Amino acid sequence: MDIQWCVCDLDGTLLDSRGRLGEANVTALKKLMNQGVELILATGRSDLFVRDFVDKLGVRQPVISCNGGLIRNVTTGEVLLRRVIGEAKARELTQYCLHNRYDTLAYTEEHVYYLSGSRKIGAYHRYNSEVESAFQVPLREVQNVNDLPLPEVIKFLISGIDPQIAGRIQTGLDTDGSLSMVQSMHNVLDIMAKGVSKGEAVSLLAQKLGMDLERTLVFGDNYNDVSMLTLVGWPITVANAEKSVKRLARFVAPSNDESGVAYAIEHFILEG
What we know:
Hypothetical Protein, Haloacid Dehalogenase-like Hydrolase, Chain: A, domain 2, 6-stranded mixed β-sheet, 14 strands
């Protein structure tokens, strides 16, 4: 297949259910890059939380992070796009999450903030304990709204809430239509500025880098990947993807726990 670009989601797609990259995926992606295909990582995570993966894969291109709220080359530090939520709305969201004691993270360019009592932040602590100091994520605790640099917040992540609560949050806090909200994992709600999506980020990079979207491959699994899966000529999902997301795929690869990305590259792309 005449593929020029590969855009790959991380959690639930490239990474297994324990957050590991896996040697099969590393080998297959490097084989793809050795054939001239450029790799772009597109994640809901902060790009501070992916630098070890960038290093292991040898990624040269900018990373799409915060679901498209930030595009940055993590090697050079060059920022191509940054879309903040805005101070007033960030204040409202922080107060709301503190009041309801939601498990909440907030991402800025330089730090990951977590509300006191967060369990989700445990994944960051584990990551920091396993990687070199150069790849560790700077973490800051938030006990009140003044602990957070509100004008700098790119994304909020609220964990451990069901779809009904997520719906109430959207109805109650997005009365002016200034936010973008999407599910990125089971019982996880991501909140960004209006118009932020992975698809918009891919479109921007297509213009800047001269990407032919018809010759672009996208791997994804969840609702925050839909905007980019529908944009390209080669959408592929893994078997553990949401049912409605799998319907968008040209191919459905084995699950993320079965190195589905590696399987797809070896069987659908390199042998295609």
